[in-house]
Amino acid sequence: MDNDTLLTTTRSVRRKLDLGRRVEPELLAECLRIAQQAPMAGSLLESFRWLVVDDQETKTQLAQFIRSGGEKSQAAYGHLVPPRTLASGQHLLAVLERIPAYVMACLPGRPSGDNASSTAFYGSAYPAVWSLQLALRTRGLGSTIVGYHLAEFEAETAHILGIPPEITQVATLAIGYTTTSTFRPATRPPLEQITYHNRWGTTSSLFG
Ligand SMILES: Cc1cc2nc3c(=O)[nH]c(=O)nc-3n(C[C@H](O)[C@H](O)[C@H](O)COP(=O)(O)O)c2cc1C
User: Fold this and answer.
1) 207: pLDDT strictly greater than 90
2) Atom of ligand 1 nearest to the CA of 88
3) Hey, what's the torsion of the CAs at 59, 147, 153, 136, to 10 degrees?
4) Atom 19 of ligand 1 has which residue's CA nearest to it?
5) pLDDT confidence of residue 203
6) Ligand 1, atom 14, residue with closest C-alpha
7) 137: domain range?
8) Using one digit for the tens of pLDDT, what is the confidence trace for 22-65?
9) pLDDT on residue 204
10) 145: Cβ below 6 Å to ligand 1?
11) Cα radius of gyration rounded to whole Å, the chain
12) How far apart are CA 67 and CA 99, in angstroms?
């Protein structure tokens, strides 16, 4: 697969995860080693942590908090997302215990609230998360970010996983092999409409 195809067809996979196929820990480790090379605010490079969860009992406990949060979230905000995405999210909630592996990206503390610190904090996790999603894809695995438990159940999730209270769970990926290798670019707004040139609101001359 060429790089542009990888970057444009790596989707959030929920319905096409192979729930019956184990994800080898050594394969996850290989992908995490690649993701470690992602950019990160220098002050956080040493304190970033991954937590891999593939033990069935722990996944079952984790699933109950993701599901509780997810049902509330989908009831409140489901109308704001495309119907296909909502249906896909509902499917995910139904099979949470059977997801082969979860990987959580964690950082110490909380940003102080201003834009610079929030950007540095959360922005330090997501490049690595996306690199992990790309590395997984090139090996036949799919993933999706799940944040449902964070609104009300972050502390409960931390408790079952032994995460200290000062640690922030920034992102969780649900991971499995995919049942298909055919993924396509998604529909996005026309680039011409979302891209300004030199001044906010100007039509971009980049497109002729
Ligand atoms: C910060 C962030 C949080 C997300 N949270 C969830 C989530 O809680 N549940 C979920 O099913 N997908 C979640 N997603 C995935 C988005 O729904 C998905 O990226 C979007 O629908 C576009 O689909 P695509 O990734 O296939 O292009 C999240 C993505 C990001 C970047």
Assistant:
1) no
2) 11
3) 20
4) 12
5) 83
6) 145
7) 3-207
8) 999 999 999 999 999 999 999 999 999 999 999 999 999 999 99
9) 79
10) yes
11) 18
12) 13
User: Going by C-beta distance under 8 Å and a sequence separation of 6 or more, which residues neighbour residue 127?
Assistant: 38, 39, 40
Q: Give the mutation target among 12, 74, 124 for probing the ligand 1 site: most ligand atoms within 8 A of CB.
A: 12
Task: Report the nearest-CA residue for atom 27 of ligand 1.
Answer: 11
9 Cβ closer than 6 Å to some ligand 1 atom: no
147 Cα: distance to centroid of ligand 1 (angstroms): 9
Q: How far apart are CA 175 and CA 183, in angstroms?
A: 16
Query: Would you call 109 helix, strand, or coil by DSSP?
Result: coil
Q: What is the CATH number of the domain that holds 197?
A: 3.40.109.10
- Does ligand 1 come within 6 angstroms of the Cβ of 179? no
Query: Left, alpha or beta for 189 (phi > 0: left; psi -120 to 50: alpha)?
Result: beta
pLDDT tens readout for residues 129-186 = 999 999 999 999 999 999 999 999 999 999 999 999 999 999 999 999 999 999 999 9
Total domains, the chain? 1
CA angle 17, 23, 25 (to 5 degrees): 150
Average pLDDT over residues 108-118: 95
For residue 11, how far is its CA from the centre of ligand 1 (angstroms)? 9
Where do we find the tokens 């503390």? 109
